[in-house]
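Can anyone check this?
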Amino acid sequence: MSKILVLGAGLVGKAMAIDLAKQHSVTSADINENALAELAKLGIKTLLADLKNLEDFSELVSGFDLVVNGVPGFMGYETTRKIIAAGKNVADISFFPEDAFGLDTLAKNMGVVAVTDVGVAPGMGNIILGYHNKRMKISDYRCYVGGLPKIRTQPFEYKAPFSPVDVIEEYTRPARFVVNGQTVVKEPLTDKEFLNFKSVGTLEAFNSDGLRSLIYTMPNIPNMIEKTMRFPGTMAFIEKMKLAGFFSKESVEINGQNIIPLEFTSKLLIDKWKLLPQEHEFTVMRIEIEGEENEKQVSYTYDLYDEYHPQTQTYSMARTTGYTCTAVANLILNGQYKRTGISPAEFVGEDEGNLEYILNYQKEREIIYTKTKTVK
């Protein structure tokens, strides 16, 4: 039985700790006493810690075989750096905005296996693409993904288990994608298109900066894009909020106090976007891969639809994000994945058997990816 430390006891961190505790000795660390108390009731060890301001991680991670980093994105890079510097293998879902390869030399020098961006998207899309990129000549990769509440409530028609700051980042960070081998940068919330899904009806998709490491690790693929999906009308509403300055990082003075609009907006949205206990929501994703395989033009489509799981009372986005990470954590622990240095999720998919293991691991937890192959 391995010893695992899960950093962050939010909705995703909680789901990961519970899942890993089925096979391993798990300790959850967070600054939120209430969140830790919920896990303690389930028999999971807990540790109260201010992870943002903790300088010495060596004592914190001492004695653990692997660390799972589930802190918010704004503190993810530095947290991962500290974990690596302490010589511990890490699976990371903090989705920090910095370039993870800035830690590659450190990880290699420390002999650390560090897998980053190992959630649902980025994450599963990367793993699937990494698998096929080793086995065919890909011309096109498209990933559409969204997590939404079952009941649409005005004005946002949106809720999520993530920090509002991380969600707003999708709406404000310039979107990068690849067209004819060239990286193109556009404003987010652009190039709207509509997709229909039997399970949820029509959703609108727009540019977001979801390719991340794929831009650099898959230079052989000429066309790649990831789009975020929301209920129709969301793009126009969020764009008005942006234009009004609600997401600005420049401080404004109000009654003699300097206020940063983004921080103020995030504080308000914590409650507005917070999922209620046992509130039903869903995750929908479609991955499309086209190219040449065995001298034939083929396309692969992977479809995911997952809902809140009432038996375990686990939100779908926490399941689909967290269980990808816990599957990869097990691959690291059992020695099936042992590449030292920084590994974005697509590197994991390259090795034979890893994708099958991860898909089966999630299938056991009732997360089903449906694959369709078409020969043209």
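Reply from J.R.: I decoded it. The domain at 3-119+317-367 is CATH 3.40.50.720 (Rossmann fold).
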